[in-house]
Amino acid sequence: MPNKILLAVSLSLLLLAGCDLGPSNIESATARQILHLGNGTEPKDLDPHTVTGVPEHNIISALFEGLISVDPATLTPQPAVAESWLISDDGKRYTFTLRDNANWSNGDPVTADDFVWSWQRMLSPALASEYAYQLFTIKNAQAFNHGELQDFSQVGVKAINSKTLVVELENPTPYFLSLLAHYSTFAVHPPTILAFGDRDQAGTLWTRPGNLVGNGPFTLDSWRLNYIIRVKKNPQYWDHQTVRLNEILFYPIDSALTEERMFRTGVLHATSSTPLDKIASYQTNDPDKISIDPYLGTYYYRLNVTEKPLDDVRVRRALSMSIDRQAITDSITKGGQIPAFTFTPPNTQGYFANNNSIRYDLAQAKQLLSEAGFPNGEGFPEIELTYNTSDGHRRIAVAIQQMWKLALNINVRLSNQDWKVYLSRIQALDYSIARAAWIGDYPDPNTFLDMFVTDGGNNQTGWSNSQYDQWIASAASETDEKKRYQFFQQAEQLLMDESPIIPIYTYTRVLLKHPQLKGWEPNILDIHPYKYVYLEDSTIDGGQ
Amino acid sequence: MAADNLQQYQDLVFDQGRSPWQDAWYRLKQNKLAIISLNFLTVLVVIAVLTPWLAPYGYETQNLALGASGPSAAHWLGTDIHGRDLMTRLMYGGRISLMVGFAATAVSLVIGVLWGTVAGYVGGLTDTVLMRIVDILYALPFMIFIILLMVVFGRSLLLLFLAIGLIEWLTMARIVRSQVMNIRNQDFVSAAIVTGLSHWQIISRHIIPNIIGPVIVYITLTIPSVMLLEAFLSFLGLGIQPPQSSWGVLISGGVETMEEYPWLLLFPGLTLSATLFALNFLGDGLRDALDPRATSNQ
Fold it and tell me: With a cut of 0.85, is the ipTM above it?
């Protein structure tokens, strides 16, 4: 018996000791320069060529670097792997000179051939990358991706020597350099890919810790599923003197609420989202810990136009016109978001969409629905609205469900899905209505509008319109900005007339950010090159 | 027992005689807590049945401009984030929670009692086979089982009842089996066999009435656990879907905003706790009432 008592006492002591966690992450972070970031959800993969999401982007931009990077505040293109570049007079030929000291994390030099090899991988039909169209501005890239061209040497990318890369474009593309800062155009390490599978094979083990070879400021140290992804400073990185952080830890946390709690208890430096109900209290009590910045992104719903009754444009417009977006931004999201009636956010590099198509108009919505054969919603089948698990998405969905019920008398079933399931279902068009968001990859309307060309990798609505494709193509070959934007306006007008998507609001980036976090400049793409980020205690107040 | 009660008791016994059921009912009535609980549950069921006529608002009627507001004259228990009346949602939620509680328990009762009785009564190889099946189902992770059912049959309220019932009957079967085995070897059963009753008659007349005590007690414990299970499933998106609510859904929603809007957690939480308490007190009372040996041992 005494033994048992002793055991019980020592066990409870052990438990008590467990409660004393010592200094929190934040308190010890400055000295050790370890950044703790909330990252929303478990990434689908860490292969720059097969992912599309923001959580993946956050990690990949630590592990890889493109030819170009962007200035953290102004987003202007800056040299990265490419030390310098020349642009021909007609704007269609780019000659990049790669840095001599740009190395892979295993010590191999990053060569021009690596980029050629990687872009061939990205464009190969077998890999079926959803982002392949990012490279379609390169000569013959689209034909190669669609399988019309078998010979990659015809595609406009050549390695002149190991450090010189020449790229021929279809059209002079004003945003081409910004595009090269996006992870879909990054190079991967060919021997590593080949060691774990074929070049055009997705989902192999090459992205696992120990296998992954990158060229970014950090290397992958460990990946514990649904717990933590840890990256460490990469000594092989050409600019490693600039990098001040020693480690970054990414926490995949779906729940904004859990993230906020972790932020408050000093586990995280910044969150990926903010609980909607806490925005107001942070603004009054801790204004230095919350930042609300413009964000080049649109929150919208995709409609599967291949399925009845959403194949009818009148139904789609009725759905779109019966959503009271103002009520959603005022009463639900509450972070200064702007109701959206067009897909491209207003003032995207000086571009404004025309909108005389979609507005909040219940009478017309009702009329459209009855013209489509469902007077007062009669005979309208119950449709499913899919969203990835998140309290915020659920609230918006519940509000819209009720708006449709009241305005159109139609029933919608809500279905929440895990991120990976959600992505694969949308890609397979296995949905009726799906919540979506698009964050610009570079500051140009094209990053929004070229999504919806026929069979575009991120179209994922089944919608196709040759006139639209043509306008997007015309915009691509147009050099005059004004005319170019006119093509975009026409295209966007058509997109809204046809409504394969329902824009809901233009994002703002609402994040909780510890004052320690420095070098984290707000910008409309919410890109924060980690090499400029560092931690420093600014005040003596000690935070908590 | 007070003298008056004793007199009543004796009157009852000597004047009219009494069945074991009257006896049990009499003992239950002596237990104040159990009777209060019974009344509370009765009121709850009545409210749940009459909700469509009693509820002041529609359970899905939103008022986004109002948003979450505390208790007021217009909304006695306040409103949620979408401006929906909490009392209304609590009432409708109660319908579903109680329905799930009773229906799923009924499913588990039917299967569990039949299964356990057959296993315990027939014994031998049948018993072994039946109980190994129960063991195997026990080993099956129930979440996967429910997800599988949902995937195959789609999502519906009826299926939810069935799915939960299909999981909860296992323990019931074990309890019933052990009781039946115990009773089966007693003399009155042997006597019944000797008088030539069929097996079915023996089971229905002699065995089932004798195991009802423990079964009823177990039921009162199953209902709360089923209600919690439903809350859990709804939380995972496998149970009740918005805009419908159940107490579990309301509570899991309330937890998320308990710092900002405490009433959204407080009222559903109180209601569910009170119900669970009531069911447990009633279960206690019933056990004492139906199992006189346990009472006399105290």
Answer: no
pLDDT at A344: 93
Query: CB distance from B30 to chain A under 8 Å?
Result: no
Q: Is-contact A179 A442, C-beta < 8 A? A: yes
**Which residues on adjacent β-strands are paired with residue A23?**
none
> Does pLDDT of B292 surpass 70?
no
Is A437 an interface residue toward B (CB < 8 Å)?
A: no
Dump the DSSP string for B166-227. HHHHHHHHHHHHHHHHHHHTSHHHHHHHHTT--HHHIIIIIIHHHHHHHHHHHHHHHHHHHH
Which of the residues A398, A430, A435 would you substitute to probe the B interface, choosing the one with the greatest number of B C-beta atoms within 10 Å? A398
**B92/B244 Cα distance (integer angstroms):** 8
**Residue-level pLDDT at B297:** 38
Contact (CB<8Å) A327/B64: yes
b (16+ CB within 10 A) / e for A193-213: beeeeeebbbebebbeeeebb
Q: How many CB atoms lie within 10 A of CB A538?
A: 11
In tens, the pLDDT along B198-251 reads 888 888 888 888 888 788 888 888 888 888 788 777 766 677 777 888 888 888
- Residues on chain A touching B243 (C-beta within 8 angstroms): 398, 401-402
From chain A, the residues in CB contact with B259 under 8 A are: 278
Mind giving me the DSSP string for A343-409?
SSPTTBTTB----SS----HHHHHHHHHHTT-GGGTTPPPEEEEEES-HHHHHHHHHHHHHHHHHH-
Q: What angle do CA B56, B59, B63 make, to 5 degrees?
A: 85
B266 CB within 8 Å of a chain A CB: no
| Residue A329: closest C-alpha in chain B | B64
pLDDT in tens, A405-429: 999 999 998 888 888 889 889 989 9
User: From the candidates B260, B263, B264, which should be mutated to test the interface with A, based on the most A CB atoms within 10 A?
Assistant: B260
Spatial strand order of the sheet with A218-224 comes to A34-38, A247-251, A228-233, A218-224
A-B interface: how many C-beta pairs under 8 angstroms? 51
> CA A195, CA A191: separation in Å to the nearest integer?
6
Under 8 Å between Cβ of A64 and A165:
no
Instruction: Compute how many other C-beta atoms are within 10 angstroms of the C-beta atom of residue B149.
Output: 18
**Is the per-residue pLDDT at B16 higher than 70?**
no
- Measured between CA atoms, how close is A398 to chain B, in angstroms? 7
Cα B60–B62–B66 angle (5° rounding)?
Answer: 150
B243 prior amide bond cis, ω within 30 = yes
Q: What is the pLDDT of residue A542?
A: 43
Nearest CA in chain B to A324: B64
Which one of B65, B81, B260 has the shortest CB-CB distance to A327? B65
Residues 253-282, chain A, touching B (beta carbon < 8 A): 257, 275, 277-278, 281
Q: Which of residues 281-300 of A touch B (CB under 8 A)?
A: 281
The minimal CB distance from A401 to the residues B237, B243, B257 is found for B243
Per-10-residue mean pLDDT of chain A, 544 residues long, equals 54 49 74 91 92 91 94 90 94 94 94 95 92 92 92 93 94 91 94 93 92 95 93 94 94 89 92 88 90 91 93 94 93 89 90 86 93 92 90 91 92 86 90 93 91 89 93 89 92 93 93 90 88 80 43
Task: Mark yes or no for CB contact A399/B237 under 8 Å.
Answer: no
Contact A281 B241 (CB under 8 A): no
